[in-house]
């Protein structure tokens, strides 16, 4: 019984977490490249960095962190978010009858 649960639930969730982490990397590269291409007036803090800065400020540690440390924490948090959303994907996608590639793309863009 336990092996059935592990095969039917945990394996897809582990695979989803890995896929979410991997999918986060091209998204991160795209955001960084677009930041270089956009005009100066459209430059702003990327969402992972802005969220990390906000949380660091709430925790009272932002003033103790240099910019490279905050960027590193933002990257780790971003990849962690990708893994968490990848874990949720198998649970939400199994009842949708579209090809897997389309379900994955739509889910990834939605989160």
Count up the helices. Answer: 4
Distance between the termini: 33 Å
Query: Which whole number gives the mean pLDDT?
Result: 84
Spell out the helices and strands N to C: HHHH
Biggest pleated-sheet summary: none
Helix content: over 70%
How much of the sequence lies in strands comes to: under 5%
How would you describe this structure to a colleague?
The protein has 4 helices and no strands. It has helices at residues 2-37, 47-59, 67-93, 100-110. It has 111 residues and is mostly helical. The chain has a domain at 39-81.
Keywords:
single chain, 111 residues, mainly alpha, 4 helices, 78% helix, globular
Short description:
With 111 residues, the chain is an all-alpha fold. It is 78% helix and 0% strand. The protein contains 4 helices and no strands.
Give me the secondary-structure topology.
Elements (H helix, E strand, L loop, with lengths): L1 H36 L9 H13 L7 H27 L6 H11 L1
Helix pairs in contact: 1-3, 2-3, 3-4
């Amino acid at each position: 019984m336990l092996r059935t649960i592990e095969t039917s639930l945990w394996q897809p969730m582990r695979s989803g977490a890995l896929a979410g982490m991997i999918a986060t990397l091209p998204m991160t590269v795209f955001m960084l490249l677009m930041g270089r291409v956009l005009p100066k007036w459209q430059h702003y803090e990327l969402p992972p960095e802005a969220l990390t800065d906000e949380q660091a400020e709430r925790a009272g540690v932002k003033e103790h962190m240099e910019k490279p440390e905050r960027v590193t924490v933002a990257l780790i948090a971003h990849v962690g978010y990708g893994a968490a959303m990848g874990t949720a994907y198998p649970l939400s996608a199994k009842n949708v009858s579209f090809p897997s590639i389309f379900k994955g793309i739509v889910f990834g863009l939605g989160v």
